[in-house]
Amino acid sequence: MLAIAPHQTDRQILFAGYRFFLAALMIFVVMKLLGHPVRYRKQTLIPCLRIALFQTFLQYVCFYVGLTYTTGIHASILAGTGSFFQILFAHWMYPDDKIDWRKTVGLITGFSGVWLANLSHGALSSSLGIGSLLVLASAMSGSFGNLLARNETHRMGVFYLTAWQMLIGSIGLIAVGTVRIGLFPFHFDPRSLLILLYLAFVSATGFLLWNSVMKVHPVGKVSLFLFLIPLFGSLLSSVLLHESFSPYTLAGL
To answer: Residue ranges of the EamA domain (predicted)?
Structure first.
């Protein structure tokens, strides 16, 4: 296997760049098979760059750097704040998606859970640390990118927008990793290559589905699904990374 250690942020970012680059290529192949136009359109450059910056590049750079300074469980819980940021951004961006008293209660309850989950022995632990702040910045960037993508899908189409923004974002991630460790520091065997292809497929499918849902549904309703991130992320961190739950983490969830 590739043996990427938790502190090797440069390798994690480069691997993410590989993943999103392959995911973009997979979407291009599907577009070709479905008869969708693949050719780049010059007038879409600025919107695609803007979406790639927030939805792919900044979101994952901040996340992987932040993950170095916090646990997987805490990172998963903090990543779930993307739903709150999305609702807040939608309040300012869409006249028909304002925050009402129900959303206000939900936001207060949700942020209280995040705060509680980051308590340790009755005191704040990593909630004000650099790792937590970077994961929060990742959630904020991804949420803003989601809304930018929502605004453009009606003009570009979900497949075109998703493929090109992932391609542009992946090039940025690869560039960051390459500056530190070179372009090809990994030695792939058949198993690790299959894992990379699987993760690329998951990324391509996930982004396509998410952008499609965001296109046709109100932001407030769609954002509820982001609450599943802390739940599944914490469970997987416990099972795969052998991280333990504190009473505060369980209460926060």
So the answer is: 13-118, 130-253
Contact predicate 87/148, CB 8 Å: no
Residue 170 domain-assigned (yes or no) = yes
The total number of structural domains that make up the chain = 1
DSSP reduced 3-state for 14 = helix
CA distance 100 to 82: 18
Q: Is residue 1 part of a domain?
A: no
Low-confidence ranges of the chain (pLDDT < 70): 1, 3, 73, 110-128, 223-253
Residue 116: the pLDDT is 65
The string of pLDDT tens digits covering residues 223-235 is 666 666 666 655 6
Residues 145-202: tens digit of each pLDDT: 999 999 999 889 999 999 999 999 999 999 999 998 999 888 888 999 999 999 999 9
Tokens 């009402």 found at: 100
Q: Give the residue from 115, 129, 105, 125 showing the smallest Cα distance to 80.
A: 115
Domain that holds residue 125: 9-252
pLDDT value of residue 162: 97
Alpha-carbon gap, residue 166 to 52, rounded angstroms:
6
Q: Which residues pair with 119 in a beta bridge?
A: 124
Which stretches of the chain are DSSP H helices? 9-34, 45-51, 59-67, 72-79, 82-93, 101-117, 130-156, 158-181, 190-216, 219-222, 228-240, 247-252
Chain Cα centroid distance, residue 103: 23
**Which tokens sit at 206?**
């996930």
Residue 46 lies in a domain: yes
Instruction: For residue 2, tell me if it sits in a domain.
Output: no
Q: Which pTM does this prediction carry?
A: 0.82
Which residues neighbour 6 within 8 Å (Cβ) at sequence distance 6 or greater?
67, 68
